Amino acid sequence: MIEIETLKYDERGLIPAIVVDAQTKQVLTLAYMSKESLQISIEKELTCFWSRSRQELWLKGETSGNYQHILSITADCDRDALVVMVKPDGPACHLGTVSCFENPVWVKE
What we know:
two-stranded antiparallel sheet, mainly beta, 34% strand, 4-stranded mixed β-sheet, Ubiquitin-like (UB roll)
């Protein structure tokens, strides 16, 4: 396993995290993690992100009850993005949908 200090964070100290339902393999959301939120995520085994709009840590489910229980976190080959496999307690999206990715842009017929 790699150390979180060896990951490549952007100029704001963030790394993108693609959250995937471990059972269905559906992409649930894309969020950003700081070193601190990643450490909290690992310790609590729950997703914790850095809110770019609010400029604060955000434990997913803290207000909604829709926690995401982490089963694994994997870095890509460049160590500049993460895939977080989770068991969700409920919808991932603040709009109440299972996934934040519900708006097709193009689909091959």
